[in-house]
Structure formats: structure tokens, C-alpha cells
């Protein structure tokens, strides 16, 4: 995904935090339940899923540091505005409904009678980096192509899953594109 592309709030955890997202997805059972777990981690007292708390804190950090810019409609005047970085410190993020509210200024941020930002769209200012273990995947994939003389996507994905377990699809796609030289399509024909 190129920098400056717009994504939704629901897409952000899987893109920037693939390892924690996969753990949360496995624990929750479905994407909808994982998104709901992100909301619950901010509002319910007591123990929470660690990946959810890590993702929520990470999203706040991305917004504060400027790695992402978030635009949304402010319910006070219904105008599209860029959310300032200072609004993210301690903000309650509603991943299910796609809202952001500051708990100091509102009582219940997920109901429309209170002022918050909704209809969010997120612009990626920086491209998310690959995790450090991606280098291991890249070396393994290069060796595997030499040993098997096959570079088709499906067999490499199956072999990588068998060797390393669940690999985030974004990581696989990036490594595959880097090693093979293309991200999609059929392999080039080889002349004997």
C-alpha cells in the first residue's frame, strides 16, 4: 500500500501491527470479534487481551507522532477536519463505529448526542516497516526457490506456513515481491 493512501480505522491494526493482530484474531475467532475486543480493551476494567492493548496504544502513538493523519467529521459542526495530534493523548478510539473521542470533553463518546469525530479516514504518511523476522523469511524463500526450482506463490506460501507457522499475509506479500521480483501474476515462462 503506497504512502498517502486512505484506509479505514478497521484496516489499520492489520496493516501496522500484523503480529499482534494475528494473535488477537486467533484469540477472538473472527475479525468482527477482534475489532470489538479493541473497543473493550479501552472501556472495561480488569484484565484485557494484551495484543488489543498494544494495538490501541500503537494507534495512538502513530497519530501523535504523525505517521498517520486522521480526518473525520466533527459532530459539533459536521465539517471534515484533520484531528490534531494532541487529541490522541488518552483518546477513546471506537474501532467498531469508526469514531474518536476525548474522554475529558465527553461523557459517553460512542453516542451521537456527544461531540466526537466520526466517518474517519486515515492517510498513511509513513509506510509500515516489515518486522525484523521478515529477513529470515526472505533468506529462507531464496534458498527454497534454489532447492525446489519453483517460485510459484501458492507452494511457497504452503511451505512457509509449514516451516514457520502462521505468517501475516502482508509480510508474505512483501517478501515474495522482493525475492521473486513481482507481487502478482503468473511466473515468467522459462526457455529450456
Largest sheet: 4 strands, antiparallel
How big is the Rg? 20 Å
Return the string of H and E elements.
Answer: EHHHHEEEEEHHH
Beta-strand percent range: 5-15%
List unreliable stretches of 5+ residues.
Answer: none
Q: What would the average pLDDT be, to the nearest integer?
A: 76
Number of helices: 7
Helical fraction equals 40-55%
Spatial strand arrangement across the major sheet: 1-6-2-3
Could you tell me how far the N terminus lies from the C terminus, measured between alpha carbons in angstroms? 36 Å
- Basic shape: elongated
Structural class: alpha+beta
Q: Tell me how many strands there are.
A: 6
List the helices and strands and how they pair.
Elements: E1 6-7, H1 12-16, H2 18-28, H3 31-43, H4 50-65, E2 68-74, E3 79-82, E4 92-94, E5 99-101, E6 117-124, H5 134-148, H6 153-164, H7 169-180
Antiparallel strand pairs: 1-6, 2-3, 2-6, 4-5
In short:
With 192 residues, this protein is α+β, with helices and mostly antiparallel strands. The protein is built from 7 helices and 6 strands, in the order E-H-H-H-H-E-E-E-E-E-H-H-H. It has a 4-stranded antiparallel β-sheet with strand order 1-6-2-3, with helices on one face. The protein has a two-stranded antiparallel sheet with strand order 4-5.
